[in-house]
Amino acid sequence: MSTPRSSRSARIRIELAAPGLLLALMALPAAALQSDRRQPLDVNAQHFTAVKDPGVSRFSGNVTLSQGSLKGDAAQATAYTNADNKITRVVLEGTPAHLSQRQDDGSTMQAQAQRIDYTPDTDTVILTGAAQVVQPGHGSFQGERLVYNTETGAMQGESAAGGEVHVTFQPRPKKPAAVAPVGKTPASAASSGKPGGGSR
What we know:
- By secondary structure, the protein is mainly beta.
- It has one domain (10-185): Lipopolysaccharide (LPS) transport protein A like domain (lipopolysaccharide transport protein A fold, Sandwich), CATH 2.60.450.10.
- It has one helix at 186-189, and strands at 10-15, 23-25, 42-44, 47-50, 56-67, 70-81, 87-102, 108-119, 124-135, 139-149, 155-158, 164-169.
- Strands 1, 2, 3, 4, 5, 6, 7, 8, 9, 10, 11 and 12 form a 12-stranded antiparallel β-sheet that branches.
- A hairpin with a 5-residue loop joins strand 10 (139-149) and strand 11.
- The N and C termini lie far apart (65 Å).
């Protein structure tokens, strides 16, 4: 998945002072679809193996994840379940693995990374390894490690040692100018409303 670029966008390069420092991008969240967190979480694949550790299952071959509008795909995955057989964590791995989620404004968040670690109980997705997240109308994010909240759409980014976090801020499209009724200029349309204009 490639990251779209726009000639109208301003590309901002943010250099972190030290590895491990998190950059909170609170100005750009796009609210995720609230109904997703109430949906069941499903994992499907061509191959399935339950390992000795209780509550750990491995999937491989066209792995897909779904929870409402939240969708993921990967080459392989590891799922962790609790005593009630509820999935508490899913780790997707691929070259890369992908994730998408519909936002409340109708747009779709698109993400990819070498590893996608999703914990539904905390609404947290941790993307590591050439991570990219695109939120249409809000911005795109690239870094070694990105943290995405599936409930609020909030983002955090972290660079690798000596690296950078890249953020592209996408301006919102301007609203079209008001069009005057046929046969009237904008000035006459804004008159007092009397037939023929505002004066006699």
